[in-house]
Every structure is written in structure tokens, then in C-alpha cells.
Amino acid sequence: MKATHTGTISNRLQKRLHQKLQSMSREETFSYLADTVYLERKRIQEEDGSEYEVLLDSAARSLKGSKESMHAALVNLTNAYVEEIHTHFSNRTYDLASKVLPSALTRLLTASHPFQLLSSDFDPASRMIVQGPVEDLRNLSKEHTLVFTPTHVSNLDSPLIGYALQSVGLPPVLYGAGLNLFSNPLMAFFLSRLGAYTVDRRKKNRLYKDVLKAYSTAILEEGHHSLFYPGGTRSRDGSIESEVKKGLLGTAIQAWQNNVQSGSGKEILIVPCTITSSLVLEAETLVDDALADSGKSRYIISDDEFSERRTMANFTRKVLNLDASIYIRFSTPLDCMGNEVNGEGKSLDPLGTVIDRKGYICNQKGSVIEDQQRDTIYTQRLAAKLVDSFQKDSVVLPTHLVARAAWFALTEKHPHLAPFQIALLAKQERTLDTSVLLKKIQCLTSQVHQLDVPHSLPASLEVLLESAYQRFSLFHNERALLQQGQKVAINAKLAYYYGNRLAHLPLENIGSTQ
Amino acid sequence: MNIAILGESPWAQAIATLVAEAGHQPKIGKNPNTNFSIRGFSGSTQWRHLTKESDLVVFTTETNALLHDLKKAELGPHNQVLVNSGMDPISFQWSREIVMQNTPVLRVGTIGGARLTEEVLNRTPTSLVIASDYNSVTTLGHQALHSDICRVYFSDDSIGIDLVGLFVQMIQLAMGISDGLQCGHGTRGAIVSRGLIEGARLGNSLGADEHSFLGISGIGNIIATFQQSAFYSHGMNTINNGTMPPEALQLLTILIQLNTPPRTELPLTQAMLALGRGQLTPSLLIDKLMRREATEE
């Protein structure tokens, strides 16, 4: 796969920007640029920064000038944004990862490193189970451009999926990573080797968003396999994404259309993917955020170790101790409209018949008909199909089921309390008899078995509970479940968080705990 | 513009007339096994060829026969399709969903409003509404059917246009029952306003726009068609014969199903369903509705 150069991308983006600006009136151009200047200056002021000061001053001056001078200012800003987005992408390491060093990522995840991220006896293959139509995906990746779209719970997802792709012979991917992650040297180490480009979520202006989308479109057109987290950010409450962002997802159909129009013949296929792990590194922080949001100001965050937990030492220690199975499950690939695709890359209609997908965007003569509104609806359909795949293919693990059972037992015990109130209960109020919890587990297990969902649940309830205890004991400041004789103390926040992983399943809270 | 008209129904004649009136040559899908024909227009039995070459395919088929005609038409991803609003009581799918679940077609629209075949054939001014998520479908539908004798409005509220079609039938059923009981115009007014409110509330909870209930396919349709409506007759027959026809019971059951789990109150629908199931007498039905606590309009 060829490397992506900033200059090439800049040229493409400038060309598209030029087309966009040509169709704008002077007033629209003014508004587009003024919005950018205002929001950027506001952001810089709030952050006490000075980046782009000269460019923004020049852009502000151009607002008083002609349409052409505003165009020039927009082009300059576009180039600066492209430079920033592309800065962290390393052609050399990307090429190495894709061509030369098949074991690079294994070493990355296993070998001794200045940060000692993982111990040398860590064996990812034994802890990571990769499932799905891998053989088909390998074949499809040779002819087509794949866009992997995983669920997202942790900042560790990127290295994990990078490793998973490599371990099953799938090509490396490009993806957008938050600028904040690059300030963490450990993550920067990973990201720069996994083909990451930079996304600065603080930049809210239209030009930046347009440049980011155009950048994503351009790299897809060039044939780089990519990865988007369609949820946009890590799940805060532990649940699987029930809605996904359509911005970057929409770049897939744009790139595909451009390919069809140019006759490049390169198809773009979407690969839904679920990453399911027994434990999540940032669970405590994320659930605090989730409960603070739902409880608004009434919720007081009691854990004051947040900043300490984010220190490198603590982070490393926790990951070194992490011993949990991780399932990475690829779903059936989809075309840009959300139709399933077979192993040969052909789209299928709902009855399984092979169809010519170009018909969705071309007229009878085979020419592409541009229609942004149509493409928006296609992308919405694709987004809905992604959510379906996530919910269908997420693996039920013991920690999730036991946490759900514990949460159900707590909500049954305190039926009038909201989740954030349950999270604040005193320890004695969230302690249950083990027999009560086992009944709940039994009830949920039988319901899961009746559903057609993948799971990894031991047959014996006692073994299942023990497996969850064992995993929960490895990590977190306060265990999600702590066995105390015949009683079990529940960390309500973590039970809520891990239990939410099953929130999409129609599991009923049956049976009294009283 | 190439417009294929498929399906054997009297409405096909009206659609062909509207297409011609809008300045296009309709292409009629014929069936070699039946005597069905559309006066004044040529056609083909090769439905596949018609759909392949068409910019727009209009199915005039009723919802319960739509699946059969879809199979015959062999639609492709390039097709843009219009169907009548309606729901199949067995699969519990809207017409547009039947198209999307059984063909590669994604760009589907629904035709709502009064289907007054005779008036169209007599070139009496009328109006229709086309609802679709896709602007291209509403635009094509507008181009295909809009003329001096038919104003075609468009909407992106597919669920609203579908749902209001069912509520219009429910209201017409209630008006038939009311007239069967020899109630007055005041009762009719109450039925129309309360029925539309029920529909709008349910529609809101399902993501529909309540304005759809005030448009061509809502209040306009009730006024245009109520005395010619089969459901008005079903209402009269319910009183005259003492039993509610199965189509009417089916309609009421669908509406209650759409409100499951309950999102809003449907007092008129529920009372009529109870009447249809023999759980309520006609006089008790009126009494039950009149005794409801008065609320703000």
C-alpha cells in the first residue's frame, strides 16, 4: 500500500475546497470564514494558546476584502489543518507495519519497552479471541478498501484492534485519534505506529470539520484501510453504542462515489466489529462521568483519585495486572448503504440475492448522480445496520452477566432510587446474600441461553460467579463484587457499568430478592 | 420521463390518467392471465423490462397483494418506487417496508390522500401527498403526478402519512357507527376531532409530525371520502348487523398494536375494539366516551 503524503492530501483538499467555495456566494463565504475565525479565536483564548494566531489575524483582515481574499485565507487555514491532522502519521512506521514486520505489533504488545506496558510473559494470543469471517476479510482486503468500525470503551481499544488485525493477517489501518491522546507518551508511542492521524475535538468550526471529513475521504480514495469509532467516543456507561455518529461514516460513501466516478474500481466496504473485554481500564472514571451526567449537580463524585489514576505508573501497573479475556469479533461486512456483502465483495439484497450496488448512485447509463440528501439517508441506514451488528455480535462474558445480576438485585432492593442514587448508597445497603445473587444469575443465564447471542458463560453458576469474582479482584480500586462469607458487597457504580454491557438485550429482572 | 404503473386496481387507471395529464407517457404493466386493462394506454406484460427502463415505478396494488407484484417486477437498486400507504396486517409491515424488506430498493415513497378514481377520471381537481425519506423520490413523484387537475404535495414524514391513513379509516368506521346509531352532526364533529388527536398523539410518540394529520391525507381525506369509504359502511353494518366486519376489527387491532407498549391513550379506538369484540354495547360505547373526564382541548 502506498504511503500518504501531506502534499497529495493538501492538493486534493484544496481542489475540493475550491469547488465548494465556487458554489458559495460572497455572503456564504464570509459567514463560513467568520465562523471559523470567531470559534478559533474563542478556543485559543480559553486555552491561553497562540497557535494559528498569524493565520487567523490574516483571515480576519480578509473578511473586509474581496471573495478572492477570503478564499485565499480559507486555503491557508485548510493547509494548516491538513498539516496538523497529518503530522503524527508516520509513513515509515506505517509501511513497516504493513510490509516488513509482521511481528511488529506482537512485539509492541509483548516486548520489553521503556514504558514496560506489558510484561514479557504476556501472551496476547491466549487472552484475545478473534472471531468472525476473517478469511473473507483477508481476501476482501486485497481487492477492496476496508473500513473497520468497532465499538469503543477504552483507549486501549486501538492497540488491541491493531494487534488483532495483525494477528489474523489483516492489514493495518489508518484512523483518527484525539489530539489529547498524543500528549500521553505511552499512547503516542502506540498511535504513531498504528497509522493514527490527529483529530482535535476542541476545534468546532465548520472549516475544520470539513477538512477532517475531506481528509478521511481522500485517504479512503487512496485505498488506505481505515478505522472509525462510530460511537465517536468511549461509551461512558458501559453500554454498547445504540446510536452512532454519521460524519466520518458518511465519508465512506463519498469516497466510494468518487472512486466509481473516476473508474478506479476500488470498492469500500464497512466492517462492524465488537471489542468485548471482561474488564475496562477506565471503567471507574467513565462511569463517574456517566452518573454525573444523569444525576446532574446532585451527584457528588466521591472518588478523588481520578488524577492519580491517570498517572503513567498507575496506568502501567493496572495493565500489567490485567488478566482478562478479550473478544474481538468481526461481523459480516456491509456496503456503504448498509447491505450485507458476501465473501466475494458482492452486495446482497434482504433476500440474499446478489445485486449491483452501483445502481444506488448511478443512473441507467452508469453515470454517478450526486445527491447529498440521498447519501445522508444511506449513511443513516448504514449507521442503523452497524448498531444491529454491534448488538448481535457482542459477546456476553461472566463479568457482564454477574454485574447485570447484581445491578438488577440492587434496583429490586431499592426500587424508588435512580441509578446515581443507588451508586451513592452506603456499603451495608448494597450488600446482598450470595444466594440472592445466584438466583438472579441463574435467571439471567437462562434468558441469555434462549437468545441467539454469542457468550462465554460456564455451565455451572458457581463457576460463573467465581470467574467473575476472580476477574473483578484483579483490578479497580474497589472491586465490583467482594465476597464476604455468605454475603457479597457490590460496588454499585461498577455493577451498573459492567452490567450495562448487556443493556441492549431484552433481559427481564425476574424474581424477588426479598 | 419513464414511469411504470404496476398492479391491477381501479386506482391504476387514475394514476395513468394523472401521469398523462402531467405530460408523460405512462407504461402499464399488464397481466396476460387476466382481462384487466387500462383504457387508453398501451402496456407490456414484461414487467422486468418496464422496471429496468423506468425512472419511477408506481405500484397501485393494495398492501395485501404488494408482495406478489414486487416479486413479479424484479426491481433493482436503481429503481425509485411509490406505493400506496397502508399496513399488511399479517407481517405488520408498512407498504414501504414490504418493498425494502423484499427487494433491493431503498428509495421508496408513499402516496397518501384520498383515492377518488372516478373524480380523477372526470378531471375534477384533487390533491395527493407523497412522503419519502428521499427528496429524489418526492421530486420524481411530484413531476410524475402534478398537473392542473392534481396538486401533489410532498413530505418527509413517511410514518405520519402511513399512520394517518389508518386513523382516517378508524374515524370513518366510528362515523359509520355514529350514523348507524343515528347520532347527530355534533357526534361526528367530536369523532373527527378526537380521532385525529388520538392519531396525532400516537404519531408523535412514533416520531411522526402531527401536522400530517391536518393535511391532505388526514382531515382532507376524511372529508373527501368518508361516505364512500368501505370503513364507513363497516361502521353502519356493525350497528345494523350486530357484528363488526373482520377488516374493521383488524384495523383496530393494528392501531392498538402500534401503541404497544402503551405510549398514549386511545379511548376511541379502544372503545370501538371493545364493541367489535362484543365487550361493549353500542349505547354503552357512547356513554363510556361521554363520561370521560373533561380535559383541555
Q: What is the average per-residue confidence, as pLDDT of chain A, rounded to a whole number?
A: 82
Distance from N terminus to C terminus of chain B (CA atoms, Å) equals: 48 Å
Tally of DSSP β-strands of chain B: 10
Structural class of chain A: alpha/beta
How would you sum up this structure in a few lines?
The complex is a heterodimer of chains A (514) and B (297). With 514 residues, chain A is α/β, with parallel strands linked by helices. In chain A, 51% of the residues lie in helices and 10% in strands.
Descriptive report:
The complex is a heterodimer of chains A (514) and B (297). Chain A is built from 22 helices and 12 strands. Chain A is an alpha/beta fold. In chain A, 42% of the residues are buried. Helix content of chain B is 50%, strand content 14%. Classes of the chains: A alpha/beta (514), B alpha/beta (297). The A-B interface holds A 337, 339, 347, 349-351, 353, 355-360, 362-364, 371, 373-374, 377-378, 381 and B 52-53, 76-79, 100-104, 106-107, 133-136.
Q: How are the elements arranged and paired?
A:
The complex is a heterodimer of chains A (514) and B (297).
Chain A: H1 6-22, H2 26-47, H3 53-62, H4 67-87, H5 91-100, H6 104-110, H7 124-127, E1 128-131, H8 134-143, E2 145-150, H9 157-167, E3 174-178, H10 179-182, H11 185-193, E4 196-199, H12 206-221, E5 226-227, H13 249-262, E6 268-277, H14 283-295, H15 306-309, H16 312-321, E7 326-330, E8 347-348, E9 354-355, H17 372-393, H18 398-413, H19 419-423, E10 431-433, H20 434-450, H21 461-472, E11 481-484, E12 487-490, H22 492-499
Parallel strand pairs in A: 1-7, 2-5, 2-6, 3-4, 3-5
Antiparallel strand pairs in A: 6-7, 8-9, 10-12, 11-12
Helix pairs in contact in A: 1-4, 1-12, 2-3, 2-4, 3-4, 4-12, 12-13, 13-17, 14-22, 18-20, 18-21, 18-22
Chain B: E1 3-6, H1 10-21, E2 26-29, E3 43-44, H2 47-53, E4 56-59, H3 63-73, E5 80-84, E6 87-88, E7 93-94, H4 95-102, E8 107-112, H5 117-121, E9 126-132, H6 135-145, E10 150-155, H7 158-180, H8 185-205, H9 219-225, H10 230-241, H11 246-258, H12 267-276, H13 282-290
Parallel strand pairs in B: 1-2, 1-4, 2-3, 4-5, 5-8, 9-10
Antiparallel strand pairs in B: 6-7, 8-9
Helix pairs in contact in B: 3-4, 7-8, 7-10, 7-11, 11-12, 12-13
